[in-house]
Amino acid sequence: MSFAELFFLAVALSMDAFAISICAGLAAQKAVAKKALIVALHFGVFQALMPIIGYVAATQFADSIMAYGHWIAFAVLCFLGGKMIIGSLQQKCEKQIRFNPVYLLPLAVGTSIDALATGVSFAFLGVSIVEAVLLIGVTTFVISMAGVYIGRAFGARFQSKAELAGGIVLILIGLKILLDYTLLSA
């Protein structure tokens, strides 16, 4: 997977966190910089940790299912992309976001489940996990921080569009993986 593909994947994976960050921006009345940092740290750290967990789990089984890795990566990315597209049509901002770990940790875990599944696909595709998780974590951190400020300034207008775009990008990356494999094996 090229750096550009990893970057687009990182951006797509961060769209759930971005959508919630916009809601956090709506809820932030004062100390916006501190709240943006808190939100960005939670989402960035978990988006970086979850692919590692998925990668390690998948490498335990890689030898037995390596021949199907491209199909697994395709299915995982298309499933996650479809889920994000459906979520973009249904999601509404919760106006009472709290900026404490008890509230943010479950949100950070929930928004990074797709990163866990992506870590599984990384194992089958031979992606450099260190480069990937650093890029995913930093990208999510920056996008989440920006999301708080965007939510503060513009409201929830961008929330569903961001999640829709993220879902489309994940599906396109899944299709590219399948197409690359098909062309290489032909």
Summed up, the helix count is 9
Characterize the main sheet.
none
Q: Radius of gyration, rounded? A: 16 Å
Straight-line distance between termini: 19 Å
Q: What spatial form do the alpha-carbon principal axes imply?
A: elongated
Low-confidence stretches are none
- Find the structural class using helix and strand composition: mainly alpha
Mean pLDDT: 81
Write down how many β-strands occur, each being a DSSP E stretch of 2 or more residues. Answer: 0
Order of H and E elements: HHHHHHHHH
Q: Which band does the percent of strand residues land in?
A: under 5%
Give the % helix: over 70%
Describe the structure.
The structure is a single chain. This protein is mainly α. The chain has helices at 3-13, 15-27, 32-59, 62-65, 69-90, 101-111, 113-125, 129-154, 159-185. It is 83% helix and 0% strand. α2 runs antiparallel to α3 (32-59), α3 packs across α6 (101-111) and α5 (69-90) packs antiparallel against α7. The chain is elongated, with a radius of gyration of 16 Å. The mean pLDDT is 81.
